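Hi L.,

You mentioned the student needs an example of a multi-chain input paired with its predicted structure. This one should do, with 513 residues in total across all chains.
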Amino acid sequence: MPPSPQSRNGAEAARRAWMGVLARASAEQIARHLADLPPAPAHVRLRGPETGLLMVRGRAGGDGAPFNLGEMTVTRCAVRLPDGRVGHAYVAGRDARQAELAALVDALMLDEAARPAVEAAVIAPLSAAQQAARDEAARKAAATRVNFFTMTQMR
Amino acid sequence: MYVATKGGEQAIGAAHAWLAETRRGDATLPELTVPQIEEQLGLAVDRVMAEGSCHDRGLAALAVKQAKGDLIEAAFLLRAYRTTLPRFGASAALDTGAMHIRRRISATYKDLPGGQVLGPTFDYTHRLLDFALAAEGNALPAVPHAEPNTAQTPRVTELLAREGLMQREATSEAEPGDLTRDPLSFPADRAVRLQALARGDEGFLLGLGYSTQRGYGNAHPFVGEIRVGEVAVCFTPPELGFEIELGDIGVTECQMVNQFKGSRTEPPQFTRGYGLVFGHGERKAMAMALVDRGLRAEELGEDADAPAQQQEFVLYHCDNVEATGFVEHLKLPHYVDFQSELENVRTMRASAMQAAAE
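Structure written out for the whole complex:
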């Protein structure tokens, strides 16, 4: 039976979230957390890793019609595990190893039985570190927030 | 007429070797690393990414090193490199409303929702040379932290638009024109103009933007909002069929608010000039927004007689890689061309002298 639209959307949202975390992690970080798991089965490269460009778009006035802002480098990779699962990665930048490791972890995450362990060992700590970095920047920004005083408040 | 010539290989080889030596500079000093340039000359790197029209901080830093700090040469290197790569597709349009904000200011509203955040800015420095930086290893000041603001940060333009005082942007999902695929043609639509301005030379656009403030174009702009921060880049790979995020990039956005007298079809209201650039580039984003508004004169039924309002003039001359190519080609041999000019001037002089003698 094909999955219902809701469960497919839920599965896509979950996959989108972990792919986004892997795209923001360095090769070294992914490798370090992968080392906490039993060795992954040998994978086959289906495509890449290869580096290319993505045309980044903006919108006129921030919310109008799209325009081409400029390109960015992107590296992609697709790998297959012995059981046939195929993992994909598209990551900003030119790090081939990051793209291949991200595709491998994506493939591992597609096995529902194995997912909780991979999630706990790799995705969760990477995600927490990324959130911490964002929070740190937000706290520094907040310290430069201007509070205006009017004469009545100052009295 | 072109004449093939040979020779000069040895001289060129020697010139390149000397170039490499001068790039390195005094060999008793430590060599700059690319990560050092990326981290410590970040605004140079950002400018090269913007004008090279390719977001990759590491590549831009390498280009700065190779170009000995000549930022136009570095943008040229980046443009040349991008032609060697295949294109995987186009991103979804960036949602700058969802930016992780490092800096956000408005000159039109003091108490805008979400607040004004100064971020790491030069604005309130005294522009006095800091001789302490001449020595290395200075202790850094502790950077204060505060509880983050969780309020939404709506665009200032949206606040005005809700009141009906700001012209709404045309909404269209049409495929935008792409300068890297199709050469400019006129009249150029706004999407193509914005692409050209986003990769245009900061100095050229700054001068043009300034001219609109000084009376060449009759602009009365206000900075509605400048925001600097990171936005997610989203892309739908055809093999997946759903949108994924492939990372965050730093961008600077500027919304200039300009008065508009109104026309037969539209009431008096504010209109926007828009600037968006890779990296942290406020001056460039502001200049871009001024020139974008200038170039909208015709569509808004205003007089379009100032330089910054003339599409062909602005768009054909704002690209520093093209401009440097044509200006610097004058250094290439023009021996045969010049020979004919020489003959010409000699003949004219001879007849002028003959006429004077008679």
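You could point out the following to them. DSSP finds twelve helices and six strands in chain B. Strands of chain B lie at 54-55, 87-93, 100-105, 221-235, 244-260, 269-278.

Best wishes,
N.
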